[in-house]
Amino acid sequence: MPIPTPVPVHEDSVLVDGVRIHLRRAGEGPLVLLLHGWPETGHCWRHVLPALARRYTVVAPDLRGYGQSGRPRDGYDKRTMARDMSLLMNRLGFDQASVVGHDRGARVAHRWALDRPAEVRRLALLSIIPTREMWRRMDARTAATYWHWLFHLVPDLPEFLTEGKEAEYVRFMLDRGLVQRHALGPADIEHYAESYRRAGAMRAGFDDYRAAFTTDLAADDADAEAGRRLTMPTLVLWGADGLAGTLPVLDIWRTYAEDVTGEAVGECGHFPMEEQPDQVLTRLEAFLGA
């Protein structure tokens, strides 16, 4: 069987509501947006983006505050970050997208799909449960596993303790989440480490987490109380051996989405698209093309 010709990936930046959003783009066809989590950038989709681009226009941005995108002092609640992505979609000439998110990017995708359901054709969420469920389940066992959620909440202290050691902290968190440690080569790890050495980058990431306990939680609670659920087809994936693997992920999402399917990715930790990209790609291609 001939090997498919690689689809070239181009990097660009787009000004969205005063914030410069850096992105990687490839392919033609319906739009698929790939949203990264912490402590990563859009680079995390490097194994998935070119293959999807054989059928779709695929865009992997750096979210506000991350990578080479702008780092404003505020706007890290998921409603604002989702609005960034909606405006980016429009700037690229589309009025609807399939959205795939991992970790923090999945929380942005979830909020986007709740706020603007007509814009999200299909939704894939990797390695998360809803933000409000994280706080509702924050018992001693969960807190021991997700301790960084609590550490990142503290005003100013995480910035102070990681100053000058940004790369070491990022490497520690990446290594902690990986089962397939060979999935990240030295160049990949250095890319992420360098991204968080930039002025304001650690603060932006911590503010992303801080918003989860305030604005994001309030928005999620309001939607739950109003009975608003995800209405578009939704796929949920998580690493069987990762942090989410300790939780009943699919059962939880069934109370938040009308049409949800999903499964654990075997021999995988917190980063499925990097640890098991072939498995993730197979599931995404089937889901997006259904």
TrEMBL record:
One GO MF term attached to the UniProt entry: hydrolase activity
Pfam families, alphabetized: Abhydrolase_1 (PF00561)
Keywords: Hydrolase
Sequence ranges assigned to domain AB hydrolase-1 in this UniProt record: 30-276
Record's keyword annotation contains Hydrolase: yes
UniProt xrefs under SUPFAM superfamilies: alpha/beta-Hydrolases
UniProt-listed InterPro entries: AB_hydrolase_1, AB_hydrolase_fold, Epox_hydrolase-like
Keyword Hydrolase: yes
Matches recorded under PANTHER family: EPOXIDE HYDROLASE
Name of the protein in its database record: Alpha/beta hydrolase
